[in-house]
Amino acid sequence: MKILAFAGSNSKNSINKQLLDYTLGKIENAEIDLVDINDFEMPIYSIDRQLENGFPELAEDFYKKIKAADGLVISLAEHNGNFSVALKNILDWVSRIEMPYLKDKKILLLSTSPGAYGGGNVMEVAVKYFGMFASGEIVANSTFPSFQDNFQNNEIVNEELKNTILEKITTFQNAFSQVEA
């Protein structure tokens, strides 16, 4: 299985990137394309830009990465209860290339934050956006609260949270096994 993975944060010290790296290290038998959304910085989407200049090459590149993948693992940063502007802009460009662009893609969604809600607001937005609007199949999702307390030295130190993340990874991997059977 081919997996496209990225954190929805453009921070160099993103806690979502740390959670993503941990998660990817637990996925077995997969070809993983880990991308940094900082490598896909584009002008802010507008219909006028699209009509005048077409699609930026970086939007086409990101779209091709999605199309080449069987599934996606995304760890979402929460900015004011929503996606980061950096991620939202990429999604706006890609969605104009093809909608629904995630059809037949299996998705594992994660979010974390320093606070006790663990990015719960962005997760609510993401489940609706990626599942309904972009037509992906969200096979598992999980919020991860109080990141600094529960993740230390590249490990999840809270056993309950660790088991939850491992269960979500198993569910995600099993979704591909069911397709192959």
Automatic annotation (TrEMBL):
<protein>
    <submittedName>
        <fullName>NAD(P)H-dependent FMN reductase</fullName>
    </submittedName>
</protein>
<dbReference type="InterPro" id="IPR050712">
    <property type="entry name" value="NAD(P)H-dep_reductase"/>
</dbReference>
<dbReference type="InterPro" id="IPR029039">
    <property type="entry name" value="Flavoprotein-like_sf"/>
</dbReference>
<dbReference type="GO" id="GO:0010181">
    <property type="term" value="F:FMN binding"/>
</dbReference>
<dbReference type="InterPro" id="IPR005025">
    <property type="entry name" value="FMN_Rdtase-like_dom"/>
</dbReference>
<dbReference type="GO" id="GO:0016491">
    <property type="term" value="F:oxidoreductase activity"/>
</dbReference>
<feature type="domain" description="NADPH-dependent FMN reductase-like">
    <location>
        <begin position="1"/>
        <end position="133"/>
    </location>
</feature>
<dbReference type="GO" id="GO:0005829">
    <property type="term" value="C:cytosol"/>
</dbReference>
<dbReference type="Pfam" id="PF03358">
    <property type="entry name" value="FMN_red"/>
</dbReference>
